[in-house]
Amino acid sequence: MENVNGHVGLVVGLNGNMAQIHFLRGKQCANCGACLTAGDNEMEIALPNSLGVKIGDRVVVDLSPKRVVQASLLAYAVPLAFLIAGVFLGGLVSDWFGLVLGVVACGLAYGILRLVDRRNQKRHSFQPRMERILEDGEEA
């Protein structure tokens, strides 16, 4: 149930403005963790019902690997860069100061990322998106 542009899923439930979408897992899903797994080959994800879907509708969902990579870079590379910069700059004063400044800088990076995450949650920047509803018999 996947194609080049997205995954085809089946709407299995509605809860307020959220739609529960069921997929068959693709190879690229191996360790992503963005969805709830419903079995070895299946997964489910809850998305905002931006298209007004109904139970039983088939939808194309963008599960872009690009956004997963961007989120991973933010989560790992930014704090690491702050840590290294803090250790280097603090090390100019003393080894202990470098250690302390590195840890403080890393904590600061996570604080900044927390603020960015809150903003992105409101904008759904890294969240998968429903692209369109498939008509009966239509292939994605």
From TrEMBL:
Keywords annotated in UniProt: Membrane, Transmembrane, Transmembrane helix
Pfam families assigned: RseC_MucC
Listed InterPro entries: RseC, SigmaE_reg_RseC_MucC
Residues annotated as transmembrane: 73-90, 96-116
Protein name per Swiss-Prot or TrEMBL: Protein RseC
Organism: bioreactor metagenome
